[in-house]
């Protein structure tokens, strides 16, 4: 099986024969090694030296020089907004306290669709509207590790001795 061994970032992509494309959600865009199949049927093995976050518009370079285009899939999300910047910061704090991936925009935060979190946001005075769009969650302080799968030594157990 042919391997894809290198990522070419969209801003560095100049020339090359794009032979297929893959459409991936945010979880599948963070990989190191995985068998993949393009929309056009090209089967290949993603075989990168380290786990890498692929973004919309990047390309995967196959061993023979051909390219596979990366497209970010639309995902069901909640668009969280608030009446003021300070109110949005408070909502971000509550969302972050739940350790869920979030994409922080200028005046909105995007999280995976979850009716419980939508109710929480609304209960705190914000809005939480369902949207479908590509999801680009923050890498966080542990960006060198798998996004959303890091271990940060924060325990949730509490002693009552």
Automatic annotation (TrEMBL):
The keyword Chaperone applies. Its main location: cytoplasm. Keywords: Chaperone, Cytoplasm, Nickel. It is found in: Cytoplasm. InterPro entries: UreE, UreE_C_dom, UreE_N, UreE_N_sf. CDD domains: UreE (cd00571). SMART domains: UreE_N. Involved in urease metallocenter assembly. Binds nickel. Probably functions as a nickel donor during metallocenter assembly. This is Urease accessory protein UreE. It comes from Methylobacterium iners.
């Amino acid at each position: 099986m042919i391997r894809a061994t290198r990522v070419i970032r969209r801003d560095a992509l100049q020339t090359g024969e794009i032979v297929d494309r893959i459409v991936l959600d945010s979880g599948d865009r963070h990989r190191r090694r995985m068998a993949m199949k393009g929309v056009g049927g090209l089967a290949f093995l993603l075989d990168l030296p380290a786990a890498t976050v692929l973004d919309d518009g990047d390309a995967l370079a196959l061993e023979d020089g051909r390219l596979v285009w990366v497209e970010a899939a639309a995902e069901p999300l909640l668009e969280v907004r608030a009446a003021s910047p300070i109110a949005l910061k408070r909502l971000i704090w509550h969302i972050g306290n739940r350790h869920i991936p979030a994409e922080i925009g200028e005046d909105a935060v995007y999280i995976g669709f979850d009716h419980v979190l939508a109710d929480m946001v609304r209960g705190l005075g914000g809005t939480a509207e369902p949207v479908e769009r590509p999801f680009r969650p923050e890498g966080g302080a542990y960006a060198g590790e798998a996004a959303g799968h890091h271990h940060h030594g924060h325990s949730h157990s509490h002693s009552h001795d």
